[in-house]
Amino acid sequence: MTRIIMSGCSGRMGRMITGLVKDTEGAEIVAGVDVFDDGTLGYPVYKSIADVKEEADAIIDFSNPSTLSDTLEYSITKQVPIVLCTTGYSEEQLTDIEEASKKVAILKSANMSLGINTIMELLKTATNVFGNAGFDIEIVEQHHHNKLDAPSGTALALADAINEAAEGKYEYVYDRSQKREKRDAKEIGISAVRAGSIPGIHDVIFAGPDEVIEIKHTVYSRAVFGNGAISAAKFLAGKPAGRYDMKDVIAEQLRGL
């Protein structure tokens, strides 16, 4: 049984994961961390992770970047691995995560879905074909109007997968409103839409002479991310210190088939 601390338990994703875990074999949430607690979650909720008394095998963090320092400190002290699902970290915080991963197991992913992580691998193949053929590359992402960061961490991860395949030749361009010039061939345009209750849409466009190829991922329910986070927590429990990502989770699942 994987015992989980749910950080950000009273938020939209925290509540969804709480519900999903109830129907997940081999996992349970033993405590939550959030500034708000309405008493309906069915487990103890603490305002600070430092106050958590329950023993746990993994932390799922769907809170916000401001809690990172306390979460890392707790994780290292208690030797409890962390699944970091939050986006919008600063460069300094990303460095802190890397340093912490030398002392405890950390899985960080901008997107917990199986589909997105598979698409990242497909993009590397597509880039080797279309990028070398002179196709322009654009990424358009859409999310609900409450999402704070833009572009999304997933859009940046998709761009990074493309750039990795292209050996870093592309520059990311987020805004062309101040430019009146021809598009450079060595750029990836990244556009963000914030509207309504859109859970998440990511569209990668390869546009060449007389043809367009699109690789698109659409989320219809946030349960996609919740199930991915639970699978990641079960995978990470008991792992040695190091940096992991969803590719490691997928690889272990494939080995079990």
Number of H- or I-type helical stretches: 7
Residue-averaged pLDDT, rounded? 94
What is the topology, as strand order, of the major beta sheet? 3-2-1-4-5-6-12
Intertermini distance: 21 Å
What summary fits the major beta sheet?
7 strands, parallel
Q: What is the ordering of alpha helices and beta strands?
A: EHEEEHEHEHEHEEEEHEH
How many β-strand stretches? 12
What class would the helix/strand composition place it in? Answer: alpha/beta
Mass-distribution shape:
elongated
Oligomer category: single chain
Give a brief description:
With 257 residues, this protein is α/β, with parallel strands linked by helices.
Explain what you see.
The chain is of the alpha/beta class and 257 residues long. It is 34% helix and 26% strand. It contains 7 helices and 12 strands. The chain has helices at 12-22, 68-78, 91-100, 114-131, 153-165, 223-236, 246-255, and strands at 2-7, 27-33, 45-46, 58-61, 82-84, 105-108, 136-143, 171-173, 187-194, 200-208, 211-219, 242-244. A 7-stranded parallel β-sheet has the order 3-2-1-4-5-6-12, with helices on both faces. The chain has a 5-stranded mixed β-sheet with strand order 8-9-7-10-11, covered by helices on one side. Helix 3 links the parallel strand 5 (82-84) and strand 6 (105-108). The longest helix is centred in the middle third of the chain and has 18 residues, at 114-131. It is elongated, with a radius of gyration of 19 Å. The model has no long low-confidence stretch (mean pLDDT 94).
